Amino acid sequence: MPIKKLYVKAGSVTISADQAGNANYNAAPQVQQTFCINPAKLTITISNGIPKRLR
Fold first, then answer.
1. Contact (CB, 8 A) for 12 and 34
2. Beta-bridge partners for 32
3. Angle, CA 30 vertex, CA 27 and CA 36 arms, to 5°
């Protein structure tokens, strides 16, 4: 089952995951993964100058 996350600001986040076992499979131990979330930098490129209607 996919899990979706929405990050709204920069910082670090730790995600923990585990899974119960059953008659056929052992339980999975909990694992953690930490990520650093960085904001994207805005880049604006103007190739032919500013259009007259925006001056």
1. yes
2. 16
3. 150
pTM above 0.70, yes or no: no
Burial readout 23-52 (b: 16 or more C-beta within 10 A, e: otherwise): eeeeeeeeeeeeeeeeeeeeeeeeeeeeee
The terminus-to-terminus CA distance of the chain in angstroms comes to 51
Consecutive H or E run containing 30: strand 28-37
pLDDT in tens, 2-50: 666 666 678 888 888 888 999 999 999 999 999 888 877 777 776 666 6
